[in-house]
Amino acid sequence: MTQDQLKQAVAQAAVDLILPQLDEKSIVGVGTGSTANFFIDALALHKTAFDGAVASSEATASRLKAHGIPVYELNTVSELEFYVDGADESDEHLNLIKGGGAALTREKIVAAVARRFICIADASKLVPVLGNFPLPVEVIPMARSHVARQLVKLGGDPVYREGVVTDNGNVILDVHNLQITDPVTLESQINAIVGVVTNGLFAARPADVLLLGTAAGVKQLEARQGR
Ligand code: 5RP
Fold it and tell me: Is 213 touching ligand 1 by the criterion CB < 6 Å?
């Protein structure tokens, strides 16, 4: 199977997982990226089974609207049962690196509101230790050099993602050469740097379920209780 076929399979598995629990009042949180796009396309076939969606990026909002799915502002929504999104890396505890598509801040906000975060990814994304994928950090533009110096002190090699402006008007530093053995601590250390909006570690709030596309089919991994 190609990587796209694996992404399509996990996107369909996510629709199959949430659909029985949706009703005409349900609003679904939707992530960003190629795997999330497959999810949107599969979900759109059932658009009469739920009310609408909250989008984690302008690109996702456009795709949802193109399918005729109503898109709500998060501030107008009080309940979000599910957030479905891809990832750049996951460890076995469902701590994630996200932000390859520069949408990490809005993704983290929608994930924080949702009761269940379902991550969808092809098998290449599951790693023993996070950090091979450079960790994205969203930064207020005037703080870029200051934040980069602090990230070096934390042991990383930050690289400015040229030409990218986030939906929030900020810039991205991709931090290379991190071996992230304690993702909860590193997430909070990086977020404490003045000028950082947020970083792409999803460890304080990891995924609840990981649907992993493998050649042998879709595997479902659950986060351990009480971590
Ligand atoms: C965007 C993200 C994506 O979820 C992540 O980059 C995975 O993308 P893809 O599904 O295209 O592999 O975090 O900011």
Answer: no
